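Worked example 2:
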Amino acid sequence: MLQIRCPFCGTRDEVEFECGGAAHVVRPSPSATDVEWSNYLYVSPNTIGEHRERWYHGYGCGQWFNVIRNTVSHEIVVTYEMGGEPR
C-alpha cells in the first residue's frame, strides 16, 4: 500500500485518496484546430518515470493537491499544494 503525504494532513494510507489524473495540463485555446482539441481530449501520454498527478484527499481534509510519482516504482517523490511548485 502506498503512503501519501497530504500537504495539509500529513502521511496517510492511499485508500483515503483518489487520483484525479495528470496535473499541469494546458487547455488549448478556443481557436485551436480539431486535431489539437482531439489530442487534448482523447490522447494521454503513457509516461515512464516521474509523472505529475492531481490527488484528492476524499476521506480526510477534502483538499486537492499535486503529486510527482514514479510510474515504474510507484514511489511518491514529492507532494505539493495546487498552484504551487514542488520543493
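Residues 3-28+36-81 form a domain with the Folate-binding fold fold (CATH 3.30.2270.10). The first helix runs from residue 34 to 42.
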